[in-house]
Amino acid sequence: MKPESRSRTVAVVGAGVIGLSWARLFAGYGLTVRVVDPRPDLVVPDGVEIAASVAEAVRDADFVQENGPEDLEFKRTLFAELVREAPEHALLLSSSSAIPSTAFTKGIDGSRVLIGHPFNPPHVIPLVEVVPGEQTSEESVTKAVEFYRSLGRTPVVERKEIPGFVGNRLQAALSREAAYLVEQGVVTPQDLDAVVTNSLGIRWATVGPFLGAHLGGGPGGYRHLAEHIGKSMRGLDLGTPSQDPERLIKAVEDAYGSSTYPALAETRDRRQLAVLTALEEN
Ligand SMILES: NC(=O)c1ccc[n+]([C@@H]2O[C@H](COP(=O)([O-])OP(=O)(O)OC[C@H]3O[C@@H](n4cnc5c(N)ncnc54)[C@H](O)[C@@H]3O)[C@@H](O)[C@H]2O)c1
C-alpha cells in the first residue's frame, strides 16, 4: 500500500467519518498529514498532526481535502478561507456528497477548487468522483486525477455537475426502493440486505449495470435482454417510501443496533478488502 513516499503535504479539514478515513489513507502513503477539526474528542491516526486552526493546517499544503458538514453556507465560508490561506499551488478538494463546487465558489477564485468525492470509507473503497465546477481549470482536474491515482484510488472525471453526482444518485435510486419494500412488509431490513449482498453486490463488484445487462442477454447481448426480460422490468410500478421514516429507522435499529459501530465497521472493511484482494488475484 506504499508505492511511493514523496514528501507532499495534505491538509484534512474536518475529521469526522470521512476526514479520519482520508487521513489514514494519506498517512499510509507517507504524506505529511495535518488535520483540523474543532471537535473536542478528536483522535487522529498514528503519524498524523493536529493543527490549531484552518490557516495553520493549510499553510504549506500541496493538497487540501475538505470534509466538513454537508452544508452550503459552511462550504462557502470555508472555501473563501481556503483560497485566502492555502499556497497558490495547492489543490482544494471537497468530499461533498451532493453539493457541486460551483455553488460554493461564487464570488471567489474557484480555478483550483473541485469535488473529490469518495465512497465511505475512502481508505478502502477505490472510487473518487472528480467533478470540476464552472471555474475549475483543466490543470486542476489533471492534478486531482494524478493525486488520487498516486494513492491507489480510481478517479472518475464527471463532466457535468449534478446534485449527488453519479454514485450517490445511483445509490439513492436503490435505497428508495429498498425503503419502500421494507415499509410495505415485503422483507425485513436484514433480508433485503441479504438479497443485495448475495446477488447484486457480488455482481457489481465485478461488472457494472451495463456490462452486467449485456452479459445477462447471453449471445444476443444488451439488445436481447432489453427486448425480453427488460420489457417486464419496465412495467414495474416502483414504489415511493412514506414521508415518515420513523418505522423504518426502528426496523433498522432492531436489526443492527445491538452491535457496536467499530465492530460493524471492522467487519465491513475486512470483507471489502477480501473482495478487492480476490479481484486482484483473479
Ligand atoms: N459519511 C459518508 O458516507 C460520506 C461519504 C462521502 C462523502 N461525504 C461527505 O464528506 C463530508 C463530511 O461528512 P462526514 O460523514 O465525515 O461528516 P461528520 O459529521 O462525520 O464530520 C464532519 C466534521 O466536520 C467538523 N467540522 C465542523 N466545523 C468545522 C470547521 N469549521 N473546521 C473543520 N472541521 C469542522 C465536525 O466537527 C465533524 O467532525 C460531507 O460533505 C459529506 O457529504 C460523506
From TrEMBL:
The record marks 117 as: Important for catalytic activity. Pathway: Lipid metabolism; butanoate metabolism. It is an enzyme of class 1 (oxidoreductase). One of its GO terms (biological process) is fatty acid metabolic process. GO terms for molecular function: NAD+ binding; oxidoreductase activity, acting on the CH-OH group of donors, NAD or NADP as acceptor. Residues 164-232 form the 3-hydroxyacyl-CoA dehydrogenase C-terminal domain. It comes from the Bacteria. It is found in: Cytoplasm. Its EC number is 1.1.1.45. InterPro entries: 3-OHacyl-CoA_DH (IPR022694), 3-OHacyl-CoA_DH_CS (IPR006180), 3-OHacyl-CoA_DH_NAD-bd (IPR006176), 3HC_DH_C (IPR006108), 6-PGluconate_DH-like_C_sf (IPR008927), 6PGD_dom2 (IPR013328), NAD(P)-bd_dom_sf (IPR036291). Keywords: Cytoplasm, NAD, Oxidoreductase, Phosphoprotein. Residues 9-41, 48-160 form the 3-hydroxyacyl-CoA dehydrogenase NAD binding domain. PANTHER family: 3-HYDROXYACYL-COA DEHYDROGENASE FAMILY PROTEIN, LAMBDA-CRYSTALLIN HOMOLOG. Belongs to the 3-hydroxyacyl-CoA dehydrogenase family. Homodimer. This is L-gulonate 3-dehydrogenase. It comes from Lentzea albida.
